[in-house]
Fold each of these.
Amino acid sequence: MDIELIEKILSCNSEEELIIQFKIIINRIGIQHFAYMHIPHCQDVETKVISDYNVNWISHYVENEYQHIDSTVALCNVATEPFTWEFSRKLIQQTAMQNNYWHEANEFHLKDGVSIAIPSSDSTTGFGFALQEGENSNIWLQIHRDTLKVLATVFYRQLNYLIESSRGTILTTDMSARELECAQWISLGLTAIQVAEKMKITERTVRFHLNQLKLKLNVKTKEQVIVMLAYHRLIQV
């Protein structure tokens, strides 16, 4: 994946700019529309939706609380990998209400697509991507799975960065020089064994540094570590 694409997202200074840049990038790989949803488990907090879907569909979706019957949302609660909408319909037995939901979505040209969950302990958070006409979601996902995971993570982290910046609540956590060096090597695509050789430490120590970074940054994957450190300009990508 082109590192410049990540840098373009991380350089966005507003939510509006982030959405525009994200749309340009995902259109290039066969995605027609996207929707980002953050559904807090606490009912006192509003659901956040960012999308370029038809505005009438978004209003209809929110007003009818379709997140409670949308099988892609249900699957985002447990999924660890991107999945096709077709897979969610096959995995979760569809009720008459859910069949009607997909019929209505189809009327807004939201028939075939993929979704990806963002790991979160206090919310259901993820993306829905409607593919361009003629794309086969299963084949598309085989080709673009890794790229999609990176783009979704970068968008999510940059969005949170912008929100925190506007509130003045960015948390700075001290990282050791060795932890940052480890992350820098990993960002270049090196394996734990290769990083250990570069740093002249054991593979176990590399994994320890990575786990410490996950704890300090409150993330779950090494990709999220890299994205988080990159947009805080603590490593170069």
Amino acid sequence: VAVAKPNSIAIRIAIVAADEADLVATRRWGNEWDIAAAVLVAGEAGAGVSDATGAALAFNQRDPRAYGLLVAAPGIHAAAVARLGGSPPA
């Protein structure tokens, strides 16, 4: 399903949480304050949520950045992690 590209990563996450898209993924570094609330909503809606490597997101850390983001509909998160793959750039 193609979805118009909104400017806000939080809006994109909410679109997945609302079951209007299958996933949103990025391999860019991002700040926790841009995604925290939307990630909570998506997780409560049953979406798989992780950083770009498949690791759980950790908030309130000394470094507020996360390497990428993957929010996916139930059942496809693991396959999406494998497809996105990779470690953060050095």
Amino acid sequence: NPTVQSLIDALRTEMEQYGEMLARLDEQQASIVRFKGDEVIAAGASIEAQAAEMNKARTHRTDCAQAVARDLKCPDETPIQEMVVRLHKDLRPLVTELVRENNELIVRIQQRSRQNHLLLARSLESMQRMIDCIAPASPPTRYTPAGRAEKVFRPQIIYSAVG
């Protein structure tokens, strides 16, 4: 059945896109850990581009699944797992395995995304603490003889030479 083969091909393509996303998230994580800001920014752009490809693959797979559902006289929104029992017995294990692998990759992508987010947040917090030590966020306020508040900007010595 050509529609079932299209679904199988779409599931494989989707799996490839998920694998590529996982690889890009791994690259981003390595850049974060090495404190390579330029690489982190480049990885972010790469991840956004891959997300678009991933969504295209997911949309195509959804379209293929709907076509299979129509061929099987099921509603368009029937999950693939429910359609598997109506497929030829030789195709069931393959489709089941592709769906399982895609679902596992989605979970891994979500986990890696959360890890990267946490690493980035910790890095930003650390940088903010360092900045706060060097230059406090808000300058002190003083009042003029007329009673108006004004900020006092005093240069701070960050480095003092000895000798």
Amino acid sequence: MNAGAYDYVPKPFDAEELKQTIQSALHLKTVEQEKAFIDDELKKTLHFGKIIGNSPQMQHVYRMLLQVAKTKTNILITGESGTGKELIAQAIHEESDRKHFPFVAIHCGGIPETLMESELFGHKKGSFTGATADKKGLFEVADKGTVFLDEIGDLSLPIQIKLLRAVQEKVIRAVGSNEDLHVDIRILSATNKKLQDEVIAKNFREDLYYRLNVIEIKMPPLRERKSDLKLLAQHFLEKYSQEMGKEMKKISSYAIDMLNKYNFPGNVRELENIIERSVALSATNILLPDSLALSVFKRRWIEGIKDQRFDLDDVAKGVSLDTILEEIEKAYLEKALAIAGGKTDRAAEFLGINLRSLRYRLDKLGIEK
């Protein structure tokens, strides 16, 4: 039994007992196989490579990745900053037949225009001031692998012309060289701009746009896949808790509710930043609402408490500071109660005060519980 047997049948064998034992063993095996299959499928739905999320929007992205990964087609990944476009490019590379060869990422907006051609295609010694030795370009470094051009919309028109030849013919020429070099690369690009608008504005070449955008993968912003927020927040909590040597294992449901009220203009990158700071500053093992490092977030959240705005010109009208502060406090408490579904204990946790203090404030301001 210790060696992995399911059961045993003592001699002499009883045919019916043997039959039932075999059927039970087969049933158990089937259940185990089904569980293993479900576990594998769950792993696939919760993440793809380093990408995390099981929302319908991300399931659509995963399906597209599986369809295009093993092709040689150029792909344009679009989406707002912080949505994880480079992770998508890495996942495509890892699922492709090029996965054992280099993946080279180039941030087109982070390299000065005067150096861009040299960075992409290389240069020969003496070709310009400071070129003290031959240097391979990133396209040559990526031979047989994948080139990822991040923020492709930031490239200047002169560089776009040179890039077009590399994309069309898979041929490059180093700065200062008279010889062409053939490279075997797949090109993935990403942008947070609307390239079609850039084409219309004559800021981006139309022919290059169509060469790069054979297939487009759109990354949804975090505000459109809020069902992934808890999963992402938990992932970042565990990541930074481990890195910082802390034992934080859980984010309170109230903290998650608070995060869900925010639109995250910086998307997943902003969420990660918030969780990292919160882990660093937290003195507890559970991330509570008052543990969240949300100074900027809180200001934005408070601004959206009510359509009412408090005008500084009220000072000239003789409106007292106490009156203004009372109005702000009342609006803040009403919003907290609304978010908490009318539950005072939950609202108190949101606000970082005890229940007795909240009840006193509600009575003082005439707010119904």
